[in-house]
Structure formats: structure tokens, C-alpha cells
Amino acid sequence: xxxxxxxxxxxxxxxxxxxxxxxxxxxxxxxxxxxxxxxxxxxxxxxxxxxxxxxxxxxxxxxxxxxxxxxxxxxxxxxxxxxxxxxxxxxxxxxxxxxxxxxxxxxxxxxxxxxxxxxxxxxxxxxxxxxxxxxxxxxxxxxxxxxxxxxxxxxxxxxxxxxxxxxxxxxxxx
Length: 174
Fold this sequence. Notes:
By secondary structure, the chain is of the alpha+beta class. The chain has one domain (4-165): Aminopeptidase (3-Layer(aba) Sandwich), CATH 3.40.630.30. Helices cover 29% and strands 34% of the residues. Strands 1-2-3-4-5-7-6 form a seven-stranded mixed sheet. Strand 4 (83-90), helix 3 and strand 5 (118-124) form a beta-alpha-beta unit. The longest helix is centred in the middle third of the chain and has 15 residues, at 99-113.
């Protein structure tokens, strides 16, 4: 298998990021978004995360962007400032090649280096076993689910909640 190289995502990645995300919106349940954001909106989202000091990374296989991941604010109120929510999207042509696992591994490390203490995974659709399993394999524990909170593709969807400590977690004060 060709090596998966991880690097910081850049604005030059936006066309591919937008295409990968559009596929997830149109065909998957990882995102509960219904309307496809354009490149301008995806640029705005990336800039907001980077300006906020959050990690946003890309995975390349053979010089082609195969996926991306970022950590963003779990909630906007100040008390949540040490907790992030992860998001991972993989090009459908790169599924089942370990890209998601490599991205999440690096994202965890980046979030720890930036001083975050908890990472939350909000996984759309309780039937999304691959996402649940990769999170579990990387130290996330199941903390619950919200049943039937999203409606997409003519059916109700759950949100699965998983959590992982980062660095010292809650053992020390920040």
C-alpha cells in the first residue's frame, strides 16, 4: 500500500475538500447537512478554524488528497474552550485504506499539542460502524447517543457520542 502522508491543510485544498464533503453530504450520514456548501463557504469554515488555533490536516496518497480532518469547538461557551469535536472525511476512492485512522491519530496528537483536554466524536447514524470502531480503537469510549435527532434520506438518524481524554485530560487544571 502507498504511504499516507499527513500535512496541514491549506486553502489550495479547498476544491478537493469541497468535493469530498459534497459526496458525504449527498450520499452519507456522517454529516446531517442537507445543502452542499460551495468553495467560498468551505474556505470560510477552514479559515475560522485555523484562525481559532484549531488543527486542520490533510492526508495525501501518492500526491493526491485522500481525506481531511479537523478539530473544532465542541461548544462556543468559554467553559468548553479545552474541548474539541473531531470531523473526518475520506474520499470515497480511498475508503478502507486506513486513511481515517491515520487522520484521527494525527488529529489527536495535534489537539494535544495545542493544549486541548477532551475530544468529542459526534457520529451521525448509529449504523456507522466503521467510524464508531476507528474511534473506539483510538481510545474513545461510548458515552451515549441521541436517538432519532436527524432526518435525512427519508429516515430518522441517531447521533452517537464518544469521548477521549487528551493529554492530562481532567487530571490537572489547564
